[in-house]
Every structure is written in structure tokens, then in C-alpha cells.
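Hey,

Quick one before I head out. I ran the complex with aspartic acid overnight. Inputs first:
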Amino acid sequence: MIRIPLLLALGLATMTASAQDARTALVIHGGAGVIERRALSVEDERAVRRDLDRALDAGNRVLKRGGSALDAVTASIGVLEESPWFNAGKGAVFNAAGGHELDASIMEGHTRRAGAVAGLSTVRSPIRLARAVMEHSPHVMMAGAGAEAFADTRSEIARVRPDWFDTDRRRDQLEQARKREKAGQAALSTTYFGTVGAVALDQQGHIAAATSTGGMTNKRYGRVGDAPIIGAGNWADDRCGVSGTGWGEFYIRAAVAHDICARVAYRGDTLAVAADAVVNGEVVKLGGDGGAIALDRDGNIAMPFNTSGMYRGWIKPDGSRGTAVFRDEG
Ligand code: ASP
């Protein structure tokens, strides 16, 4: 009679202990680019860091209650897509036609399932549609009108008018880019990035990665960047996950996210060495710039970037956490 409750209690105690012991980790970014102290006001910096913290909290809540890495990255990206401070969802950059074309992708490491969308203009949370492509279609990637038509079939996917994504700050950036173009300088603005990404390790030891973006200011002709391209701007396998941010054309050509994880898998490089070699080596050699966040199955985190700043945040397996913007931090 007494033995059953005792055993039950013992079992429960062991379960609680193992849930607490399980090592989870989360790393996010809000884009790399020219981010200089003198150009970012104290209030703006505070607002950016607050939203990075909110995104960390959303993902971490999922991980701590035993949820999947996939749910954690979806939750973190969902917060960043709603924040006007980042170039994803609300606050996405303008293309050359004065509209928005949003790209996103998501990948689950241990199953290698993946979903991606490109060129969206009415889907409030592109990452949710990328996940729906992964979970509710036989495909990996859908673009433009087809992706929007697929969204029509999914009642859980919220829709908005295309101008819902507008912000004054991004409109100013488009004006600046147009002026530079008129003056004979580069048409594509490579100054402001702001793409968002998240990589998580859950209590089961599984990894997932997600990336969402409005692309690059003044982009044209249905341009698609690296963010929705599996292996370029986003990748997860059973030992490593990556989300990139930077000049997408170069990230595609260097297969950045996959290359980092391939170096870990095939060469046995540490995550830090692999991520640094690709972001500060291969990308730079090609003439590109940007950064990446990476996480391995032991909970190691790497956040290299070759620009002046990268919005980033992390929660390590030991529970320590932080956010950083500039090069000389964290
Ligand atoms: N990688 C993105 C793109 O090229 C831009 C960014 O990271 O901000 O579309």
C-alpha cells in the first residue's frame, strides 16, 4: 500500500531532476551591418535590446517546459517579426518598387525537415508560413503568388495588407538608397541589414534554426536572398544549427550555413573555428559581409560577424544570458 506512492514520488523526483539537468540553449540575431554607437540613440538601443530579450524569453519558455527546439525558434522569431526594429515582418525594408517581399525558412536538425517561403507581401508572420510549408505540404519552398495561395488554404496564417509592414524609418532608408543610386553609387543598400534568426537546442538534444527577413533595401526583379535558401542563410542537422545575416548574394555563393555545419561534421572543427572560418574567411574572400549565429549539440554558441555590429542575444546551457550590439561587447 505504501510502496506505490513512494515509488511514484521517487519517479516524479527523478523526472523533475532530469528535466532540470537537461541542457538547453538559445541564440538569436537581429541582423548584422553598419551599427555604430554614435548613430544609435540610447533610447533606440534600449528598445532594440528589450525586444531581443523578449524574443529570448519567448523561446526559452518553450525550452524550459520541455518543448521542441522547433517551437522555440518559431516563438523567438515570432516576437522579432512583430517588432518594428528589425527587418522582418513589421519593419521590413522596402524594395525598389516601394513594397515589401518577405523571405523566411525553418529547419529541424534531427529530421532534416525544412520549409521556406520567398517574396511574400501579405503574410504577417513569414516564419509561420515557412513552417506550414514544412508541416502541411510535400514541398520545401514556395514563392510569390503560389506561396500566398498556399497561405489562403491555412486558416492559422494571419494576413495583413501589404502596407502593414511599412515604417517611416525603412522608408527613409529607401529614399537614401535611391539618392545614392542617382548619384551613381551602389543601388542595393548594404548598410542596414536587420534580418532576424534563432537557433535552439532542446531538452531532447535536438536543434532547429529559423531565419526571416525583408531582404535588402531597394532590391528588385523578384530578388531572393539567402534567408529562405536552405544551406545558405539557414541550416540545422543533428549536431549543428546556423542562421545567417548579411549580403545575401554572397551567403548563397558561399553556402554559409551549411558550410559551417559541414566543417563541424566532416572535419571535426569546433563550432567557433568553423563559424569564424566561414564568416570571416570565405564570405570576406568573395567580397561579402555579414554575420551568423551558430549552436552545436553540446550547447556551444558562436556569433561571428565582420561588420561593425550585429544585434544578438543568447541563453547558454548554464542559464547565463545576454544581449549585445557592438563589436566590443559580449
Ligand atoms: N541576408 C539578407 C538578404 O540578403 C539581408 C540581411 O541579412 O539583413 O536578404
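The chain has a mean pLDDT of 93.

Talk tomorrow,
K.
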